[in-house]
Amino acid sequence: MNQKLLKSHTILAICILILSIIPVVAIGPYLHQFADDYVFGAPVYKAWTATHSFGACIQAAWAESMHIYQTWQGTYSACFLMALQPGIFGKYWLVPIILLGSLILSTYTLGYTILRRLLHISKLEYTFISTLFVLMTVQFVWSFYDAFCWYNGAMYYTLYYSISLFLASLLIEFHLTKSIIAKIIITLVSAALAIFIAGGNFVTGLGMPAILFMAIVWMWVERKKTPFFLISILMIYASAFAFSVFAPGNAVRQATVTDQPNVVAAFFMAIGKSVEFLADAIGIMEVLMFTILIPFLARLAKASRFKFSHPWLYLLISFLLYSAFFFPNSYAMGSRGADRVQNVYFYVHLWMFCFNIFYLSGALQRRAATQEPVSVAIMNLIDAIKQKYDRYFQWTPVYYWLVLVLSISAKPTTTNRTITLLRKGTAQKFDQQMRQREIEVKKSKADHLVLNPLTVKMPSDAFHDITIYPGYWINRGMANYYDKKTVVALPFDDADESPAQLLERCREEVGPGGMTFIEGK
C-alpha cells in the first residue's frame, strides 16, 4: 500500500473510531448502578451522604476493602475501587468514558512501545495498525455492556486489563531508555502498578505474571542476560498476589463452590476452554483484519533483528500462556466464567494472534533466506498462491473498507448494539424507572420498602433486579446501601403471589409496622 493510500485509510480509520465510540459515551447518562454496585458501594455512599468529604469516602472504601478481604475475597485494590463506584457521587455517566478511554489509551500505548520504540516503524504505519487493532478490540468485545457500561464488572476486568497494558509498556520502555532518571521513575511506577494489578481479578492476575516470567526466561536464554529489573518487578508482583490469593475471605467464598476440580484437571480444562473460546470468537471480521495486517507484520518481522528461533516452541508457549488466563475460572468454577471474564479472553487472543503471525512469518523468512528446504518450499507455495489468486489480493483495500464499515454497522458490534438500546428506548426506559425508584427511596423515611420491579433488562448476564424475597443478596445490598432494613419488589402480574400477600409475608419476616409501598411511575 503506497503512502498516500495508507494516509487516507488511516485518517478514515480514526474518523470511524471516533464516530463509533460516540454512542457508547452517549448512553452514559442513561446508566445506573445495580447488583454489586450497591453491595460494595454502601459504606462509601453512607460516608458521602453524611459528610460530603472525599477523604472520608477514601477511608470508608479502604475499610470496606479490608472487611471484604477477611470475609469474601482477597482482591484488595479491586474492592477498594468497587467501593468508590461513581453512582455514589451522582456521576455514573462517567463509567463508559473511564472504561472505554482506558482500553483505547492503553492499547495505543503498548502499540506505540512495540511498533515505534522497539520495531521502529513509521508513525503513519503505527497509527494505521493500532487503529485497526483498537477498532477490533472495542467493536467485537465479547460483552460490550460488561466491558463499558457496568462499573463493578467492567472495572474489575476491562480496567485491570488496560492497566496491565500500561505496565507492559513500562517494562519494555525500561530496556529501551538510556536515561537514569527515566529508569528510576519507570521502576517506581512499575512497582506500584504491579502491586495494584496483583490486587485485582485472578484472570489478569495470573496471566500477566506468567507472561512476565516467560519474558525473563527468554532474555536469560536468548540474550544471555539476567534481567534484574524484570525479576524484581515479578517478585514484587508475586508477593502482592500471594497476599491476595491467601486472603481469609477466599476460603469463605470457595466454600460455597461445589465440585471444584483439582489443579491437574483445571490445567487441562483451561486448555480445552481456551480452544473452545477461540472457536467461538474467531469470525469473518478477524479473518479480514488479519488479512490486512499480515503483510505489515511480515515486513516488520523481516526488518527486525530477532532470531525467531524455535518457532514451534514459541507457538506452544504462547498458547499455554493464553490458556493461563482460563485457569482461574477453570479451577474455581470449572467453566469459562461470566461474560465480563470472557472480555479479557477476547482482548488477549487478538494480541496472541498478532504476535504469532509476526513470529512465525519472521521464522519462515529467516529460514527461507538460508535455503532451509521446508521453509523454501512453503515460501514457494505462498508465492504460487499469490500468483494464482492475485486478483483477490488486489482487493485488499476493499477488505479494509469492509472492516471499517462493518465495525459500526454489523449487528454484533459494540456501536450497533449500543445504538439499538438507544433507538428502541430500552436505555431511556431503564433510566426513567431507575430515577423514579431512586428518588422515591431517598424520600421515604420508612425502614421497609416495597417497590415495583423493573420492566426492562440491560444486556448483562449479571443484570438482576431486586426480587420479592427480602433475603436475596441484591435486596439486602440495596437495603444496606440506602440504610433500610428491607427492600423487596412487587411480584409481576402473572405471579402466584398478589401484592397484598407479599406485604403480609414481608410483615411476618421483618416484623410489624414500618412497611411502605412505593408505586413506580
UniProtKB/TrEMBL annotation:
<keyword id="KW-0472">Membrane</keyword>
<keyword id="KW-1133">Transmembrane helix</keyword>
<feature type="transmembrane region" description="Helical">
    <location>
        <begin position="12"/>
        <end position="31"/>
    </location>
</feature>
<keyword id="KW-0812">Transmembrane</keyword>
<feature type="transmembrane region" description="Helical">
    <location>
        <begin position="154"/>
        <end position="173"/>
    </location>
</feature>
<feature type="transmembrane region" description="Helical">
    <location>
        <begin position="277"/>
        <end position="300"/>
    </location>
</feature>
<feature type="transmembrane region" description="Helical">
    <location>
        <begin position="92"/>
        <end position="112"/>
    </location>
</feature>
<feature type="transmembrane region" description="Helical">
    <location>
        <begin position="228"/>
        <end position="247"/>
    </location>
</feature>
<dbReference type="Pfam" id="PF19528">
    <property type="entry name" value="DUF6056"/>
</dbReference>
<feature type="transmembrane region" description="Helical">
    <location>
        <begin position="124"/>
        <end position="142"/>
    </location>
</feature>
<feature type="transmembrane region" description="Helical">
    <location>
        <begin position="180"/>
        <end position="197"/>
    </location>
</feature>
<feature type="transmembrane region" description="Helical">
    <location>
        <begin position="203"/>
        <end position="221"/>
    </location>
</feature>
<protein>
    <submittedName>
        <fullName>DUF6056 family protein</fullName>
    </submittedName>
</protein>
<feature type="transmembrane region" description="Helical">
    <location>
        <begin position="344"/>
        <end position="364"/>
    </location>
</feature>
<feature type="transmembrane region" description="Helical">
    <location>
        <begin position="312"/>
        <end position="332"/>
    </location>
</feature>
<dbReference type="InterPro" id="IPR045691">
    <property type="entry name" value="DUF6056"/>
</dbReference>
